[in-house]
Write a structure and sequence with these properties.
mainly alpha, two-stranded antiparallel sheet, 8 helices, 6 strands, elongated, membrane, PFA4/ZDH16/20/ERF2-like, transferase
């Protein structure tokens, strides 16, 4: 599958994703400056802690950029419909284009998306068949980074040894308490929100039900399915190699349809 960039022209979405990026930038700058690097320089923490924090931060921002710019599964104006699959396609009553069943029209983006889960303003993009795995990665790495930040904020005052080589006239030293309180507040909000969202996404993936379908309240006879969690995640991530489920810098290749696949709206 070719890598296609996808940008949504939505001022509200730009504002939301700017806030998410600002939170990431704040913690990526101040936590190393206030906690990690000073304590590492004085031998209080190992180098592995610093490296792990930067890796978590890099994976989080990579997932954010990929999820916000990846094509969620936008349908072309003149799609090629195999003759054997025509019964699984339908006409969209909003854009008057043919689409596979389980696709939905996004009024914010102005087009249909294959297996659309929802439109997320925090990434300024739809979450659909081709970028759902990236959105799931974003939720996971945002949890990891937020929890990491909260632990470091806590350890700064209740566990780490006092620093001896600080310049008390520096801005960050004089305002350390306020800066870390802001960081802790961001960490609590992000960890709570991402944990709830990650749980919701995982339950939907394991039950093969999108957020839109949950809102429409289909009956269990229509969308309920029993399948292993390995196959469910492999189908979303586009690979059976579990290590690749955690890497945002790759392309997704759709797996062959299994006997669990169903066609419904």
């Amino acid at each position: 599958m070719k890598l296609r960039l996808h940008f949504v022209v939505d001022p509200m979405g730009w504002l939301c994703i700017s806030m998410v990026f600002g939170i990431w930038l704040y913690n990526t700058f101040f936590i190393p400056k206030l906690v990690l690097l000073p304590h590492y320089n004085e031998g209080h923490i190992p180098w592995a802690t610093v490296v792990c924090y930067y890796i978590a931060s890099a994976l989080c921002i990579a997932a954010l950029v990929r999820a916000s710019t990846a094509d969620p599964g936008r349908l072309p104006v003149d799609p090629h419909i195999p003759h054997s699959e025509r019964e699984h396609w339908e006409l969209c009553n909003k854009c008057n284009l043919m689409r596979p069943k389980r696709s939905h029209h996004c009024s914010r983006c102005g087009h249909c998306v294959r297996r659309m889960d929802h439109h997320c303003p925090w990434i300024n993009n739809c979450v659909g068949e081709d970028n759902h795995w990236l959105f799931l990665q974003l939720c996971f790495y945002a949890q990891v980074l937020s929890l990491f930040t909260l632990v470091l904020d806590f350890c700064q005052y209740y566990y780490f040894q006092p620093l001896t080589g600080l310049d008390q006239e520096k801005f960050m030293t004089r305002h350390e308490l306020a800066l870390l309180r802001v960081s802790a507040l961001m960490g609590v909000v992000m960890f709570g929100g991402m944990t709830s969202l990650f749980y919701t996404q995982m339950t939907g993936i394991l039950s093969d039900t999108t957020t839109i379908e949950k809102m429409v309240q289909f009956s269990n006879e229509i969308y309920g399915s029993k399948r292993s969690w390995q196959w469910a995640l492999a189908e979303v991530c586009g690979t059976r190699w579990k290590l690749l489920w955690f890497l945002p810098l790759r392309n997704r290749q759709p797996l062959q349809a299994s006997h669990h696949s169903r066609a419904h709206v």
